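Worked Example 4.2. Consider the chain below.
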Amino acid sequence: MDQAESLNHSKWECKYHIVFISKGRRKILCVQLGHILGDVFKTLAQHKESRIEEGHLLPDHVHMLISIPPKYAVSQVIGYIKGKSAIHLARTYGEQRRNFVGQHFWARGYLCFHGGAG
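Applying the procedure from the previous section yields the following structure tokens:
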């Protein structure tokens, strides 16, 4: 546990492999939005004291390895990232994209593996 981080009374190393998809599995992530989504995800993760270790944007879904402190629930952090990124995309691109559904950009739910396995 040499890479463990610490809170006041604990040391931790909690990493999760997360996968989530765009609503309707629309294939626009890499080409049209990939250049901005990576930075948005990293910034939003930092708001919850989390860190994206690695990430991949594929045409219709996202893979990320994220380190989340034990004081936050995984669902809380992922919900925050998905919700705020959808709002950002709606405000930035909502009026420019014809088939953009605004704040409902991501499908409900996500897939999570503890420890970065998967």
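The first strand starts at residue 5 and ends at 6. The helical segments are 29-47, 74-93. Compare this with Example 4.1 before moving on.
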